[in-house]
Fold each of these.
Amino acid sequence: MAALALFVRSGGRIDIWVTLASGYGLLLVLAQIRLLPLYLRLAFAPSLWALTFPWAAVATTALRWITGYEPPGHRVYTYLVLAAVSALIGGIAVWSIVAAARGRFLPPAAPPAAA
């Protein structure tokens, strides 16, 4: 989010602050990718939706970089980023629907406390 805010502040230009914030964001992305096998073993919980906002921000930042530099094949990179973030959010949506259909979307209610 910081990189996106800095992109807006700089008028869409890539300056040192955007580069620093994006580099730190890339470090965090690498840490999250390393944890992906652990995430895939988790049982469904509605809190998984919390992953969608930061990953959408990461995708938006990547798209800003791609459009800022327009490297060779930039359209392919754009489609890959959009496909990846769509697959993540769509996967969580499907997982939510399946959990709701099985009655496991929310955890069971706690038993009432003894008086």
Amino acid sequence: MALKIYNTLTRSKEIFEPLTPGKVKMYVCGPTVYNYIHIGNARPFIFFDVVRRYLTAIGYEVSYVMNFTDVDDKLIRKSLETGMSVPELSDKFIEAFYEDVGGLGIREATVHPRVTENMQEIIQFIQGLTDSGYAYEKEGDVYFRTEKYPKYGELSHKNLEELQYGIRVEVDERKEDPRDFVLWKKAKPGEIKWSSPWGEGRPGWHIECSTMAKKYLGETLDIHGGGQDLQFPHHECERAQSEALNGQTFVKYWMHNGYININNEKMSKSLNNGIDVRDMLQMYRFQVIRFFMLSAHYRSPLNFSHEIMEHTGHSLERIDNCLADLRHRRKTAMDAVLRDHDRAFMEKIDQAMERFHEKMQEDFNTPDAITAVFDMVSEANLYLKSESIPHQALQHAMDAFKQIDDIFGILQGEEAELLDEEVEKLIAERIEARKNKNWARADEIRDQLTAKGIQLEDTQQGIRWRRKV
């Protein structure tokens, strides 16, 4: 098998061949830290976390950079609204970011650089573009000459004549060409600012990522990722200024995930239908949120609703219950000679794992990979009906589930099965009630536990319990 990635630039799947064998340099655009991250932010953060985990699982050493935009127009506006300084605001929401992504089971990047920590490098980058004629200064602002870079528009597949202003680029008659974009902004009175050869000001949006990518990963990256909304203008501009300065290909594989809709409507400020991650984590286990995000191919749109999340939770519960049953049987399993029946089961698990990897190698096709996981669940549930099961076969299946969880991060660990003291007492009391044939009290305790989200099963190996999703 060979990993294939859909490259936004070429609009085709390409066999993944990193610049350096065994190593991957990956950059993903991080948040502008003026507010809490929302469900739309969560999709790329979770998906590229899975990409990184998968690349690591198949043997690559991954250098993963995700930046913080800690100074821009939005932060300045929020600063004026709240009375907090821009650094105070960014510190607050960076701390919140770590809490929220940690709550989603997302691993920290190798480096999380801030714009404000790389200001001299940004100024040097812009100076290099002005020295080479790719940029020009007008009254304290610096702009990039798009016409001088003939490949501008290739990433977004737009003709230069068709290109419109980027989201954060204001119309300015001082531009030589209306398609030129800003690299350095002259500071307005009272704004946060830094000294530069063009006067006091701050960087434009696009230049920061080019600078930090170069500083931490080099002039050419293996993978650059982000949401579909960043394809133009942000990534288009990054590519232009990076290749203009460095004279080399900026990114080998461009990856972009699709949008999230809320109840079949596009998430937007005008509809006020966004959901913050921290609010989602109050409603759903993080594993359910991750499972939901992986339930559709990353390049496809994904629709969120509470009904869909409830269905997602029940689907994940099937996997959790299977894994919990395997753990439960393992407690009483003995080492024994494997029978043909046991070997056949282990082979079916291996075949399901092969299908899992085949689908992941096809441009990270997570929904089809999940189908392979449910194949494992079906085989395991059938096998668990056997009266005598050797420890080796159970461990083989559990090891396979662990491999999947190392990549997807969706399964409950054994520690999640620990009961709190109150529930333990109730279970012990129910056992005693059954011994005394006090069936009414035993049933009453079962109802109490059910209300607490604990389901009990009486098995030959003893009481089996699990949590509801």
Amino acid sequence: MKKRKSIIVAASILLTMTVPTVMAERGAHSQAAVIETSDVRTAADQYLREHADKYNLKEDLSDLNVETVINSENGTYVRYQQTIEGAPVFSNQVTVTLDQTGKVLLVVSDYVPYKSVEKIKNKMSKEDAESKALKHIGAKDNGNWAKNSKEFGYMVEDGVAIPIYRVVVHTDEPFGAWESYIHAENGKLLKKRNLNQRATGTGKVFMPNPVATLGSTTGITDNRDADSTSLNNQLKAVSLLGLDGSGYLKGSYVNIYSKAKTFSSSNTFNFTRSNDSFEDVNTYYHIDTLQRYIQSIGFQNINNRSIKANVNTYTKDNSFYSPSTKELTFGSGGVDDAEDAGIIAHEYGHSIQDNQVPGFGNSAEGGAMGEGFGDFLGATYEDSLSTNGYGKGCIGEWDATSYSSSNPPCLRRLDNNKVYPRDWAGEVHADGEIWSQGEYDMAQAFGRDIATKIILQSHFSLTPNATFSDGARAIKQADVLLYGGAHGAQIDSIWAARGISTN
């Protein structure tokens, strides 16, 4: 929690083309001819028959149907579809690449041999398969009937050909074009995926907040979300990655829920802070960026999900993560919390720890570690976005303008030199400054990437009731796992300065 009390609370488009005779000018009377389509197919067929054992094919190619013959300037491509009893084995194809003389250059094969075909007594109708598919994806509507498709075929698993329907439905909730493989007799869902490709949008955000980029509080005030020239000048144009194409701020790692119901059919989200949609965009961008950063340093299994973020739905000057709903909520009291990247990152830190150690922070020291890690994540993220060094060692400069008189204004600092147990206060945020400085000092010593990687790795070793000592020992052990203990002496020194042993 931000403030003073702890609540962790498609179907492919197939183009069949006859290979034309191409003339190449090499002088007044010279020309080169490309072999005709029938000759291309003959050459491809012959090659596959001769190499059937290599690709596990039947020697007579009786279960391969030619789908397309496509010519390009420098090569020709023959695509085959695997079939069983005349029906397609979905997504299992073979392509043969030939040069312009008919020589085979490459074969790529998805062909799957099988030992038997599962027999069924009562094959369901296409309409029943479509209804099953809608139910399996949890659709709240019947889809776009004009665009939906149903086709009977097979999939092969463990040497058995299973009769299925490939059903594609287009729904608004959940949004997407959904491909489902439905067992043709019992209706069981065997596979599903969203065929929609992720979209990239554009928007404007604070990077990380206007106080940090301006390097001062002069001339900028909240003034009830009013725009000003100084504040607008701090906006930065960014790409919004991973959008689901629905026009809403829903993507691979973030799902924005807000009273603004921000929408753009062109995925263009350029707002100023006087519009509540600005906070939606700001939240989406910074959470998405943080998750992509975590993955970039080697973690594909930490909070790798689309987290729901409630923006401008809570009027208090506070924000929190709820482990029961797995959602983030950002308050709109004072400066809207969702306008400050440090605050967004802090709350995302709670969701990270809950994801790594469900129920984390059940002890007093564990709770302080949670707040400290959130501040570390926020401060190092702010530092990575700042170019002038203003606000270093501080988190939430813009948010803090509504309650802090320091220069720069800070929600909390990470360089107060608090020592355990001397400075233990029994208040989770204040005590979190002990922990956050140890982690922040690691970032200064090793760099953000190495420090963050060690710290994230250490979380896997912790329990809900972990103490400062547990956390420090886990950090040292994580360094051994990741770097062979190369940073061990410095880790010992950094945490000893905080009064915490790593042994």
Amino acid sequence: MGAPASHRDIHFTSADGLALYGRDYPAQSDATPLLCLSGLTRNVRDFEPLAQWLGGQRRLITMDYRGRGRSAYAPDPSTYRPDVELADALRLLDELAVDQVSVVGTSRGGIIAMIMAAQYPQRLKGVLLNDVGPVIEKASLLRIRSYLGKALSFATWDEAADALKKNHPGFETLSATEWLAYARRVYIEKGGRITNDYDLRLAEAFPTDEQIQQAESPDLWPLFDTLLTLPVTVLRAEHSDLLSDATVAQMKRRHPLLAAHTIKDRGHVPFLDEPDAQAAIKAWLKVV
């Protein structure tokens, strides 16, 4: 791949009037753009490693969901939902006059991609699911619930990286430098302290421990089945607590052309700069 591509900042407005932020990384080809959708509490910085690796060979569009990163916080936290976030993403594509994309969906972004396939199939050419599928394991939901919405404040980036380690198991091979780079993609510096880069009221739109324990997991298989006509690749982190091997096996049974890859030495979620991930992405890009 080529040299790192610079991006253009995109400022646009949601249907309910929120000021939202996105990035548009230009490309040297007219191949189908990639819409990169991040995880629950994450932001555009999650895709900086991917954008650097692609180096302008593929147009890459990403955004901060409402209430995350540089996008405005919603007056009503009940709008922190995948269907609303999809509507916001489509506003971004319309702003850029992009009719069709292939989606790289990390965790929550993969759920949004499945909703997009069900509601707007004409706008979708392919999907890469990064450590997510139609079954979300309760252990992962409980882990996320344990830290979601809690205000964090660190004096140094080293402290922030240490905190990240505690909430993100499965990354034992990362170096101190890699943990620091990870922390800088997750957290932000404000007023001389390092803190959360999302609206803490996001937790209000997430099920409680009791609801997670007692409720049946939502049935996302009908959404997954809307992907059956598309080129789909799924990446599963070797130590993932969100996407199980059993779910991936069932995905392969239902989607015979699905390409499935395990990303070694990773928990939820892979960074997309790992050699295993890059090889899988290269193969997927050839057909999308």
